[in-house]
Amino acid sequence: MSSPADTHVQSAEQLRYALWLERGTRVGLGVLIVAFAAYMIGWLPALVPPDQLPAIWGQPVGRYLAAAGAPTGWGWLAHLARGDMLSLAGIALLASCSLPGLLVLAAMYRRQGDKAFAAMCVAEVLVIVLAASGLLAGGH
What we know:
Layout: H1 12-41, H2 53-57, H3 61-68, H4 83-96, H5 98-111, H6 115-133
């Protein structure tokens, strides 16, 4: 015997958002896997070669950054041709994969005349983008 909770049907909005999350997650994981392989196999040059990583990995962040010559903030974007920095693109994709889904939801809600939900989706996008921008870093 099934209860009413067992027969819950997902709304079109939930399904659309889930689809966008699934796509973003797959792309992000794909980039992570390819970047890791490129780094470990040596397909791409690395900022820190894999054999040198254990020597500096346990250092405090300041010493690690100095020893690796690693960029801070969004500086990694200038080094995407390096295998170890390309992995950060996969992480960034995973961290931002909710953004397209939220924008799609905002458009769906707007078409339905639900301005409050559309505004909440846009507000969520703005909060995520603001947080990622580094403008709120507070001296870090």
